[in-house]
Amino acid sequence: MIENEISYIIRGAIFKVYNALGPGLLESAYEVALAHELIENNLNVRRQVGLPLIYDNIKMEIGYRIDLIVENKVIIEIKSVENLLDVHHKQVITYLKLSNIKLGILVNFNVDQITKGIFRKVNNL
Questions:
Q1: What does the pLDDT read at residue 124?
Q2: What is the CATH classification number for the domain harbouring 116?
């Protein structure tokens, strides 16, 4: 499956979770529910994946965690905040670069309309 096909399924799962739970919960609640929906759609999902920082040819385990990686091709970063900041968007781009993954989705569940809370990010490898 290519990234766009995976992204389509992810988007549907985001809508389903949002419609069931609504806004205002902790990010961890959305993470568990979204992972469940994606697994129900027969996708391989890993949660809280450690991301090492490689600097000057030294691998440093410093505690970066990617919320979800789907099919080893798409990163999902989950937020439940009043307003997304530029740093949230930059975080996803940096995770994409560090992991060599092409597509990322930033989703903020704390919105009135979930369509306003989903953002695609592409790593220009």
A1: 83
A2: 3.40.1350
